[in-house]
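Morning!

This is the sequence you dropped in the shared folder:
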Amino acid sequence: MSLHRQLQQRAAKGRPIRVGLIGAGKFGSMYLAQVPRTPGVHLAAIADLSPDNARANLQRVGWAAERLNATSLDDALKSGTTHLSDDWQALVRHPAIDVVVECTGHPIAAVDHCLEAFAHGKHVVNVTVEADAFCGPLLARRAADAGVVYSLAFGDQPALICDLVDWARTCGFPVVAAGRGHKWLPHFCTSTPETVWGYYGLTPEQATRGGLNPKMFNSFLDGSKPSIESTAVANATGLAVPSDGLLYPPGSIDQIPNLTRPRSEGGVLERKGMVEVISSLRPDGTPIDYDIRMGVWVTVEAETDYIKHCFEEYNAQTDDSGRYFTLYKRWHLIGLEVGLSVASVALRGEPTGVATGWHADVVATAKRDLKPGELLDGEGGYTVWGKLQPAAKSVAMGGLPLGLAHDVKLIRPVAQGQSSPGPTSPSTPARTPIGFASRWNPC
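The structure's back. Tokens below.
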């Protein structure tokens, strides 16, 4: 039975899925815009560090004031309204909440929220993919031990890519490559919140109107978010990652099948079965028509001539050989689609993407020469960007996980482009990232 039909049945029986949302920023607001239009779901509680900002966002997306008049979570459950506070612990600990949507964007806080939710028997849809890239395998294991479901968020590109990979494998196709699009030029990795809107293609006025966070959007632009999301996909699907970071080959949608082949066959991949990101800009900065910038894709292989001929007979867009075919979704609607994850975990007990192993890592890399005493400001900031690495290489090089690069002080200099410490003394542990913190191995 379809999820929508099951939601309608829950609504008819007066048994809605009861949801608690932690974090009502841009992503959370997009989900909030859809909740009043979704049958069988009751958003009972919102927790945000700034209730006033959350209330302003609710007004922005069109919530009626009477939906927020609950004086407590118990009152909200009785009246069918929503309780807004800054107390996330009360939200995750309330016995009536079925699903927690973690939407803060802060990886360390998100881990705390997820673990506490598991401890109280709540399913979790984790929008904060930074936390999943940091320790998704452990979160998945803790959820399974607690008998609940932990899931990536549909609408965000990692879950959509996982869906395409699952489609391919369920149909019997070997996955050659999978990933997303991005607007990328190499110098974007040094972008800061001050330069992001010009590079991104928005005016400051548009950014203000949309309530857009320049640091968050800069984490997309500077390559951190594509690396984070590719890590989540690799850890969920078992696909490998490039040995020295994403390549961002430029190309239009119809060029993806040719690009995402092994190098031995004219593509860019080190081997079959990898994640990659396609750029929507040529090396000279000019835009590519019919791009995949806001979308996701998977490339599969026809293993027999018969399947290859089927591709041809049904006019499938393939590479020059006719053996590699790319299925794509050109757009993703981010928070507007999270309701599918909420319904899937609550009604089917199935995640829309979940880590199954530790295959990839995101390593903090200096945007400029950094001096001892400087404070790292995490993804999207002024100091570091995240570079995708195989997990084994990350451990061997002593790289600092990007998820730990928040509000920590350097104790020795780091050169621009460096993503591992220099030579260590006999007294310095080999796994000391950039000289100041030990690495928690998620596996």
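Headline: The chain has 16 helices and 14 strands.

More detail when I'm at my desk.
O.
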